[in-house]
């Protein structure tokens, strides 16, 4: 099971954090700091796996991370997950983000935090991997996006039509 | 609003408190269109945790959305349910989520499956009934749904037995996946559904573990996937790795092993660092089965040791740890220590240092081959040196058991005293050396160990001046960096160093007695007194011995009086912690009542009994059930402290009297108090000479409630002691049946004396060793037996006329009001010979004399029959005269007397009907279907993990049979890793047990209409297993 998914940048600023187990606010912050500390001092040419630190649960848990440009993607998982499998899951996640945002960058994560969470929710649900199929994920996300858009559009449309009808009433009065 | 909520999420993530927005998040989820709802739900799942009170506000929204026709709303609701719903809200949404399993849209089905899985993790019993639906999900036509159901099976199959039959399906699925039968969508880097494969391989390896027949089913497909996984991408390696692990986990097949070994080679030799890591992991796993494999990769392993990557190094050490044996232990330990010195990650240090210590301690004494390779002398130095390193590196990060184990090793030693002394000697020497150097950087825990060792063993070292030792220790005391806890250790070490150097000590004590730390000050005082008074010093060891040999009354029987008073005053009966928790849970569960479907509850019989059975002495039974003498000792001694005070307030001498009584009365007991104490569980007090009995009874009956009569062995074996809560509170009862019987025909009554025993009582009769379960027996209904007896001279028999009996087990002492002189009841032992023919062959307890007066004596014994517990009361005529008619009145509300036949010189039989009182339960023979129905109709769950007997092939069966034999249960059925068992109280309440093998434990789940029965049975199951 996946315990937590963290994204932070090269300076340790969290960009997204999602915990599938409950920790207190302070602990969460500490975990992020500790994880950053562990991950950031590792060279590029070492492996992508780490034993979990103290906070996130001892030797049972592993940190699996990938470093993309300015961002670290870290998954904290327990022993029931396959290391390489998760590593590729991160890849899938990032590629999906890339497709959804068209060339994703750190700013996208900051300004569209909710969207990132929604994408993640399609992949991982309650700590379990739900979907690994990129196209399926994108379809879902887009379907929801469309639905939202259509709703806003409907709203707009209603507003407009109301305005128009009022306007026409006015105009009829005027005339 | 939506935008603001997203901002709030961001703030929260950065660590700022945004709790004021929580309520708005919920509002947002409640109202608003899809868009707002979405953000609202998202915020809720990020902000709130399972215990948060605001979640309650969300339940309705979620319910509404689950029923919505809008796909997206349903999706969101399912997501949030899987994310944050706590245990007690599950029943509310469970039916809806279940419905979603048959939703036409596969995305919904998939989410529903995962939500159910989440429920299963949180509250396994609530989703038990839908296992069949999981099965359906597994065969879903959509691969996505099937894949998510694998999560569930992966979890369920941790206890594989009941799922063996699914092996075929999993193998087929894997074959299909490998054969590319899935839609192309599922390919990832042209590998078909890799994550699915990984899951399946894991499941298969769990299934095939130690099971040849199951393993055979999967050889083919494993071979296939090993072959298919061409080395081209990370993800194929992931599959390979799982494959290799599976091959090594299941029942071995040479051909596959060979292939797997080759794959491992590929991993280890791979230039990609991630693969190397996995290769090492695989090796670590594999060497447990086949140590030779490591040899092939020796060189790689050595390289990895010097690798720049911290993780790789660590993994390598882990591997080395696994292949450690007596020959290479020194080298490996050295490597580990080297690594540790250069490492600064706390977590790693704690983890590894423990292993080093384990290794160092594992290979020491009992390994002859090790002794050959290293001379003992050298070994000693190595061991001590290693431990020194461990302490100085690990320092205060060490878990407490490391120093504890080390000290124990030193203290207990091996068989040969000489070797031990050498080891200790060496330790003392090396510590002296260490102390002479720089000490300020040493961790506290190391200092503590050193001071203990010096205090304990410094006298072994002849050559060193004691003054020197004292000086070194004193020096430590002066250091600022030394914590006050360590100071205490040091001081006690100083106390132990014998005869000494009073001047130094006095100085020290002087300086410390002004210390700010009160503990230190106290110790300093003690030290001063001790060193001034040589007599005291000599006396000390003796005192210690006394403490150890003092007897412990672990059943706390002398508290009985106090407890009953407290109960009478309205105090709540004591409940053992697990029961309390259970009740707490129930309380919490009540919240849900509105949502949950309520089970038919059959409360009828239990409610009454419940109320009338406050627990008298559960403390004692809790303790006595505990077979570990140590904890018993500790537990009872602390409790005693509390209890003693009160008891003393009222009738102070009693407890003492009890304690001293045994030595006086029974020399044999006094001789070996220590052994008695150890054997508290087993040794049964012998029935004592009756005079003593009487004395004590009187004494006891005035003070105690409940009686522990020790007749027991047969009791223990056969019948069960009622658990404390079965005890009844005495209450006046009225139903009395009296029968006047006159039998001995010929005699005329020459003299009749009427005795009325008015009362009853519950006298409890404390034994010296009440630790046994017998003491728990005392529940007694307050039954008063009034015997109106008229006695006549009976010429023929001088003894016996009959008896009044009382309840079983324990109970009652009938105390004739008119005892003038104690008349020892004459031989009770051959009374059993007088039992009627049909009862003679039954197992029976010893005959216990209840009471007597000059003309009559009463004694009783219990007979165990399948359907009932019989109590036989013997009334003996102690005089020469014939008894003409005897009126016996038995009163006991809870007793139904089924047959009360009383012929003079014969026996009354009581068949106790009432289930509560009848101490013995019987097997309940039902079929599996009946069992199922019954199960659903019962409430009062109790769950607990029990020890599993693992000595034979099938642990579950062995365990259940053992229980069956010990407790007279009926094993209804055993299916896979689960077994169902039933029993009932005589003709009363049934109790159903559902057992499941859960790892090394037996998860037992009991249900019964009677609230106390499951606890009772559980308790005895534990006992039975512990004795086994």
Automatic annotation (TrEMBL), chain A:
<keyword id="KW-0653">Protein transport</keyword>
<dbReference type="GO" id="GO:0006896">
    <property type="term" value="P:Golgi to vacuole transport"/>
</dbReference>
<dbReference type="GO" id="GO:0030123">
    <property type="term" value="C:AP-3 adaptor complex"/>
</dbReference>
<dbReference type="InterPro" id="IPR011012">
    <property type="entry name" value="Longin-like_dom_sf"/>
</dbReference>
<keyword id="KW-0472">Membrane</keyword>
<comment type="similarity">
    <text>Belongs to the adaptor complexes small subunit family.</text>
</comment>
<dbReference type="InterPro" id="IPR027155">
    <property type="entry name" value="APS3"/>
</dbReference>
<dbReference type="GO" id="GO:0006886">
    <property type="term" value="P:intracellular protein transport"/>
</dbReference>
<keyword id="KW-0813">Transport</keyword>
<dbReference type="InterPro" id="IPR022775">
    <property type="entry name" value="AP_mu_sigma_su"/>
</dbReference>
<dbReference type="Pfam" id="PF01217">
    <property type="entry name" value="Clat_adaptor_s"/>
</dbReference>
<keyword id="KW-0333">Golgi apparatus</keyword>
<dbReference type="GO" id="GO:0005794">
    <property type="term" value="C:Golgi apparatus"/>
</dbReference>
<dbReference type="InterPro" id="IPR016635">
    <property type="entry name" value="AP_complex_ssu"/>
</dbReference>
<dbReference type="GO" id="GO:0030659">
    <property type="term" value="C:cytoplasmic vesicle membrane"/>
</dbReference>
<keyword id="KW-0968">Cytoplasmic vesicle</keyword>
<comment type="function">
    <text>Part of the AP-3 complex, an adaptor-related complex which is not clathrin-associated. The complex is associated with the Golgi region as well as more peripheral structures. It facilitates the budding of vesicles from the Golgi membrane and may be directly involved in trafficking to lysosomes. In concert with the BLOC-1 complex, AP-3 is required to target cargos into vesicles assembled at cell bodies for delivery into neurites and nerve terminals.</text>
</comment>
<protein>
    <recommendedName>
        <fullName>AP complex subunit sigma</fullName>
    </recommendedName>
</protein>
<dbReference type="InterPro" id="IPR000804">
    <property type="entry name" value="Clathrin_sm-chain_CS"/>
</dbReference>
<feature type="domain" description="AP complex mu/sigma subunit">
    <location>
        <begin position="1"/>
        <end position="147"/>
    </location>
</feature>
From TrEMBL, chain B:
<protein>
    <recommendedName>
        <fullName>AP-4 complex subunit epsilon</fullName>
    </recommendedName>
</protein>
<dbReference type="InterPro" id="IPR016024">
    <property type="entry name" value="ARM-type_fold"/>
</dbReference>
<feature type="region of interest" description="Disordered">
    <location>
        <begin position="715"/>
        <end position="807"/>
    </location>
</feature>
<dbReference type="GO" id="GO:0016192">
    <property type="term" value="P:vesicle-mediated transport"/>
</dbReference>
<dbReference type="InterPro" id="IPR017109">
    <property type="entry name" value="AP4_complex_esu"/>
</dbReference>
<comment type="function">
    <text>Subunit of novel type of clathrin- or non-clathrin-associated protein coat involved in targeting proteins from the trans-Golgi network (TGN) to the endosomal-lysosomal system.</text>
</comment>
<dbReference type="InterPro" id="IPR028269">
    <property type="entry name" value="AP4E1_C"/>
</dbReference>
<feature type="domain" description="AP-4 complex subunit epsilon-1 C-terminal">
    <location>
        <begin position="922"/>
        <end position="1026"/>
    </location>
</feature>
<feature type="region of interest" description="Disordered">
    <location>
        <begin position="656"/>
        <end position="698"/>
    </location>
</feature>
<dbReference type="Pfam" id="PF01602">
    <property type="entry name" value="Adaptin_N"/>
</dbReference>
<keyword id="KW-0653">Protein transport</keyword>
<dbReference type="GO" id="GO:0006886">
    <property type="term" value="P:intracellular protein transport"/>
</dbReference>
<dbReference type="InterPro" id="IPR050840">
    <property type="entry name" value="Adaptor_Complx_Large_Subunit"/>
</dbReference>
<comment type="similarity">
    <text>Belongs to the adaptor complexes large subunit family.</text>
</comment>
<dbReference type="GO" id="GO:0030124">
    <property type="term" value="C:AP-4 adaptor complex"/>
</dbReference>
<keyword id="KW-0813">Transport</keyword>
<dbReference type="GO" id="GO:0012505">
    <property type="term" value="C:endomembrane system"/>
</dbReference>
<keyword id="KW-0472">Membrane</keyword>
<feature type="compositionally biased region" description="Polar residues">
    <location>
        <begin position="772"/>
        <end position="792"/>
    </location>
</feature>
<keyword id="KW-0333">Golgi apparatus</keyword>
<comment type="subunit">
    <text>Adaptor protein complex 4 (AP-4) is a heterotetramer composed of two large adaptins, a medium adaptin and a small adaptin.</text>
</comment>
<dbReference type="InterPro" id="IPR002553">
    <property type="entry name" value="Clathrin/coatomer_adapt-like_N"/>
</dbReference>
């Amino acid at each position: 099971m996946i315990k937590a998914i963290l994204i932070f940048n090269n300076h340790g600023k969290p960009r997204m954090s999602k915990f599938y187990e409950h920790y207190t606010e302070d602990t969460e912050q500490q975990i992020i700091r500790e994880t950053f500390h562990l991950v950031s001092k590792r060279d590029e040419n070492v492996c992508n796996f780490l034993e979990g630190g103290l906070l996130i649960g001892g030797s049972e848990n592993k940190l699996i991370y990938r470093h993309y440009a300015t961002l670290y993607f870290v998954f904290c998982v327990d022993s029931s997950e396959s290391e390489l499998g998760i590593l590729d899951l991160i890849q899938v996640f990032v590629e999906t983000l890339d497709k959804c945002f068209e060339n994703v960058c750190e700013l996208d994560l900051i300004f569209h935090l909710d969207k990132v969470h929604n994408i993640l929710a399609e992949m991982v649900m309650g700590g379990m991997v739900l979907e690994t199929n990129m196209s399926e994920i994108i379809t879902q996300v887009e379907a929801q996006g469309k639905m939202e858009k259509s709703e806003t559009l409907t709203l707009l449309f209603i507003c407009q039509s109301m305005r128009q009808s009022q306007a026409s009433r006015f105009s009829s009065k005027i005339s | 609003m939506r935008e603001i909520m997203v901002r709030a999420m961001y703030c929260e993530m950065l660590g700022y408190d945004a709790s004021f927005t929580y309520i708005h998040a919920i509002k947002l989820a409640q109202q608003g269109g899809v868009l707002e709802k979405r953000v609202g739900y998202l915020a809720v799942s990020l902000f709130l945790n399972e215990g948060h009170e605001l979640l309650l506000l969300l339940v309705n929204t979620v319910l509404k959305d689950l029923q919505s026709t809008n796909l997206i709303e349903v999706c969101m609701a399912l997501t949030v349910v899987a994310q944050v719903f706590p245990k007690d809200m599950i029943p509310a949404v469970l039916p809806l989520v279940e419905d979603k399993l048959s939703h036409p849209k596969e995305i919904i089905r998939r989410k529903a499956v995962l939500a159910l899985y989440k429920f299963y993790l949180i509250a396994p019993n609530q989703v038990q009934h839908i296992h069949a639906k999981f099965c359906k999900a597994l065969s879903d036509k959509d691969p996505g749904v099937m894949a998510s159901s694998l999560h569930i099976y992966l979890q369920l199959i941790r206890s594989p037995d009941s799922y063996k039959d699914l092996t075929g399906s999993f193998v087929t699925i894997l074959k299909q996946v490998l054969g590319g039968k899935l839609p192309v969508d599922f390919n990832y880097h042209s590998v078909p559904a890799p994550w699915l494969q990984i899951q399946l391989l894991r499941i298969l390896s769990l299934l095939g573990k130690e099971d040849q027949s199951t393993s055979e089913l999967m050889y083919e497909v494993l071979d296939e996937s090993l072959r298919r996984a061409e080395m081209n991408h990370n993800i194929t390696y992931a599959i390979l790795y799982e494959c290799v692990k599976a091959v090594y986990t299941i029942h071995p097949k040479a051909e596959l092993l060979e292939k797997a070994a080759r794959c491992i080679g590929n991993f280890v030799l791979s230039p990609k660092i991630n693969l190397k890591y996995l290769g090492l992991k695989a090796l670590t796993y594999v060497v447990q089965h086949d140590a030779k494999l490591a040899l092939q990769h020796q060189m790689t392993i050595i390289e990895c040791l010097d690798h720049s990557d911290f993780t790789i190094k660590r993994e390598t050490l882990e591997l080395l740890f696994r292949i450690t044996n007596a020959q290479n232990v020194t080298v490996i330990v050295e490597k580990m220590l080297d690594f540790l010195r250069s490492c600064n990650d706390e977590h790693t240090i704690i983890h590894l240092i423990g292993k080093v210590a384990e290794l160092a301690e594992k290979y020491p004494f009992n390994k002859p081959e090790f002794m050959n390779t290293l001379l003992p002398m050298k070994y000693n130095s190595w061991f001590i040196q290693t431990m020194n390193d461990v302490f100085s590196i690990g320092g205060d990060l060490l878990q407490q058991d490391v120093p504890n184990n080390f000290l124990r090793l030193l203290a207990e030693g091996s068989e040969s005293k000489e070797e031990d002394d050498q080891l200790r000697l060496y330790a003392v020497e090396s510590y002296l050396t260490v102390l002479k150097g720089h000490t300020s950087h040493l961790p506290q825990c190391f200092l503590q160990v050193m001071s203990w060792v010096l205090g304990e063993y410094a006298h072994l070292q002849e050559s060193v001046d004691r003054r020197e030792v004292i000086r070194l220790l004193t020096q430590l005391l002066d250091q600022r960096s030394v914590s006050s806890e360590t100071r205490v250790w040091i001081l006690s070490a100083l106390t132990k160093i014998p005869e000494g150097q009073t001047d130094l000590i006095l100085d020290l004590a002087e300086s410390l007695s002004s210390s700010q730390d009160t503990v230190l000050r106290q110790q300093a005082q003690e030290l001063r007194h001790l060193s001034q008074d040589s007599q005291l010093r000599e006396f000390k060891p003796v005192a210690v011995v006394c403490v150890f040999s003092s007897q412990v009354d672990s059943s706390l029987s002398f508290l009985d009086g106090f407890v009953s008073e407290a109960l009478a005053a309205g105090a709540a009966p004591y409940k053992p912690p697990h029961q309390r928790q259970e009740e707490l849970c129930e309380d919490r569960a009540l919240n849900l009542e509105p949502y949950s479907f309520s089970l038919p509850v059959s409360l009828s019989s239990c409610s009454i009994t419940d109320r009338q059975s406050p627990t008298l002495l559960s403390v004692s039974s809790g303790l006595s059930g505990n077979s570990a003498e140590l904890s018993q000792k500790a537990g009872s001694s602390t409790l005693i402290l509390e209890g003693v005070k009160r008891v003393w307030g009222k009738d102070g001498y009693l407890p003492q009297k009890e304690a001293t009584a045994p030595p006086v009365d029974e020399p044999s007991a006094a001789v070996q108090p220590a052994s008695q104490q150890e054997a508290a569980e087993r040794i049964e007090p012998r029935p004592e000479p009756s005079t003593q009995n009487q004395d004590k009874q009187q004494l006891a009956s005035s003070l105690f409630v409940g009686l522990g009569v020790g007749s027991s062995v047969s009791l223990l074996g056969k019948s069960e002691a009622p658990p404390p809560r079965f005890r009844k509170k005495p209450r006046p009862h009225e139903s009395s049946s009296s029968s006047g019987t006159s039998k001995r025909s010929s005699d005329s009554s020459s003299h009749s004396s009427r005795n009325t025993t008015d009362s009853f009582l519950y006298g409890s009769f404390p034994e010296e060793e009440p630790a046994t379960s017998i003491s728990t027996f005392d529940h007694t209904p307050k039954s008063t037996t009034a015997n109106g007896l008229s006695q006549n001279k009976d010429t023929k028999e001088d003894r016996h006329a009959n008896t009044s009996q009382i309840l079983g087990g324990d109970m009652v002492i009938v105390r004739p009001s008119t005892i003038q002189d104690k008349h020892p009841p004459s031989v009770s032992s051959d009374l059993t010979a007088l039992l009627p023919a049909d009862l003679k062959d039954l197992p029976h307890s010893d005959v216990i004399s209840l009471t007597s007066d000059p003309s009559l004596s009463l004694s009783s014994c219990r007979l165990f029959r399948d359907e009932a517990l019989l109590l036989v009361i013997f009334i003996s005529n102690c005089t020469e005269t014939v008894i003409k008619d005897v009126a016996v009145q038995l009163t006991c509300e809870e007793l139904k007397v089924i047959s009360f036949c009383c012929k003079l010189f014969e026996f009354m039989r009581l068949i106790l009907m009432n289930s509560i009182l009848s101490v013995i339960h019987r097997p309940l023979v039902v079929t599996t279907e009946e069992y199922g129905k019954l199960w659903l109709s019962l409430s009062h769950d109790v769950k607990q993990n029990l020890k599993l007997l693992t000595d034979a092939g099938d642990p579950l069966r062995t365990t259940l049979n053992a229980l069956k034999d010990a407790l007279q249960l009926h094993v209804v059925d055993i299916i896979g890793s689960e077994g169902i068992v039933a029993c009932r109280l005589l003709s009363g309440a049934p109790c159903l047990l559902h057992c499941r093998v859960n790892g090394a434990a037996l998860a037992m789940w009991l249900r019964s209409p009677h609230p106390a029965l499951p606890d009772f049975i559980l308790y005895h199951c534990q006992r039975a297993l512990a004795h086994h």
